[in-house]
Specification:
By secondary structure, this protein is of the alpha/beta class. It has 13 helices and 13 strands. The strands form three sheets. It has a seven-stranded parallel beta sheet with strand order 6-7-8-9-10-11-12. It is globular, with a radius of gyration of 20 Å. The two termini are 32 Å apart. It binds magnesium ion (MG). The site of magnesium ion has 6 residues, from loops.
């Protein structure tokens, strides 16, 4: 069946620039795709690349869209290489799924991790987030001096409510020495996992650290596309995988082999359009997983995120429900129309 096709680019400043291992990120760039079938069924999808994770750039995705013209069919969409254009593939698959109206049988709600800012600022946030009933907290580390941050760890742990879980995310910032010091120290703390302690290129070091210390490690920047999940499983990675559905390309392929207890679903800082589809992937994954698997808190506590609040998903709360996700998704057309002005 032929589908009429259009796309629109966006360039959305963040409310607050996002600190990354590659410097400050001030503006989210991406594009929306719109598909319409002959019966008038319309679906939207979002391509939200993060090139330093190894995805395509927005320009590259837009060039593919330009080459497609005003109509596509399922075969042509399937020809978009999921390795080369993972984010664009996700956009098209999301739009197709939306037209098909595929139902997800899923848990009613998934727990959400609260984000703590780097450094001492984390301490001021914990109380209010605990009052709001968050129980999983992610603290950004590796942003300042490793010794100073390590000295704060006791205070952060002491401030957490009873039964809380703490995640640390170094965004690949530590060298071997800093990573070893931290991992030796956190062995005695209620740390759920340490995310990307060293750079994604340091694969042997990551495997060595995972073997040498008891606290689980999680790969984030190391997992750019579906192929990386399979590759790390083949390397014997014993830890956790941060799964950003928007970046995976072949989502079903990537998740097929992944044990449910080793996945942590996460935002790629998409707009509400792509986030709703990424969340549906997460809900679908747990619907298929064994019932006894308790989902790990998802990393979608990112909103408010954009200067233009219309593009935000639901404000961070300790749980997200599929019905909230679907309500947001029905606003895709409004956001598409917002890009004309
Ligand atoms: Mg991370």
């Amino acid at each position: 069946m032929t589908l009429s096709f259009a796309y629109r680019r966006y360039s959305l400043p963040f409310r607050t620039p996002v600190r990354t291992a590659h410097g400050l990120w001030t503006t989210r760039e991406g594009l929306f795709v719109r598909l319409e079938n002959e019966a008038g069924g319309v679906g939207f999808g979002e391509c939200a690349p993060i090139p330093w994770f190894g995805t395509e750039t927005v320009d590259e995705a837009a060039a593919v869209c330009d080459a497609l013209g005003a109509s596509v069919d399922a075969e042509r969409i399937a020809e978009i290489d999921a390795k080369e254009f993972p984010c664009l593939r996700f956009a098209f698959e999301s739009a197709q799924a939306s037209i098909a109206g595929r139902d997800v049988r899923a848990p009613g709600a998934l727990p959400v991790a609260a984000l703590l800012p780097a450094g001492r600022a984390a301490l001021e946030k914990i109380h209010a987030l605990a009052e709001a009933e968050f129980r999983t907290f992610k603290w950004k580390v590796g942003a300042g001096d490793a010794a100073d941050e390590l000295a704060l760890l006791d205070d952060v742990v002491a401030a957490l409510p009873a039964g809380a879980r703490l995640r640390l995310d170094a965004n690949g910032a530590w060298d071997r020495r800093a990573a070893e010091r931290w991992l030796a120290r956190v062995a005695d703390y209620p740390v759920e996992f340490v995310e990307q302690p060293v750079a994604s290129e340091a694969e042997d070091l990551l495997l060595g650290l995972a073997a040498d210390y008891p606290t689980p490690l999680a790969l984030d920047e190391s997992v750019a596309g579906a192929g990386d999940v399979a590759r790390w499983l083949d390397l014997g990675w014993p830890g956790i995988f941060v799964i950003k559905p928007s970046l995976l390309g072949d989502t079903a392929g990537a998740l097929a082999r992944l044990p449910a207890e080793r996945a942590v679903f996460s935002s790629a800082l998409e707009t509400a359009v792509g986030a709703a589809d990424a969340l549906r992937v997460a809900f679908g994954f747990y619907a298929n997983a064994a019932m006894e698997t308790k989902p790990r808190a998802i990393g979608f506590g990112v909103w408010p995120l954009f200067a233009d609040a219309r593009f935000d998903g639901p404000r961070a709360a300790p749980f997200v429900r599929l019905t909230d996700v679907d309500r947001r998704r029905s606003k895709s057309e409004v956001l598409w129309n917002a890009l004309t002005c």
